[in-house]
Amino acid sequence: MDKYSLKDYYLWKLQGDKVFLLDIDGEIAGIVDLVEEDEYILVDMLAKNKIVNAEKVGSRLLEFSEEYARIKGKKFVVVEALDTAKGFYEKLGFKEISKKYDKEWGILTVMVKEVVPTTQLNLSEGNINKNELLAIQK
Fold this sequence. Notes:
The protein is an alpha+beta fold. It is built from 3 helices and 7 strands, in the order H-E-E-E-H-E-H-E-E-E. The chain has one domain: Aminopeptidase.
């Protein structure tokens, strides 16, 4: 078996992904990793920094993910949720479409939310200030 460092793994993982950080008062409050597919955007990772005292970080990043999908002309946003997170996604309008097995995470629920098309990304009217987001891309 070849040996790879954590850095190697993340550099490989980020190929083709778009990673956005939610910056609140100079602190990284959360991160979302988006993968662009033909008809949808996959939220490959959504995480909140537990050290930063901020509310609705996950909701705000998912709202951004939907806006990103709109501007890219995608029809859906897809998440693969752990059982403990299903309720969170359901409250935000995601619907279960299937289950899948992941050898790292176990059984995941594949959930989808339809994106209403628009031609303009306007973050200032929502919960996210565009100045709070930083993009990291390869």
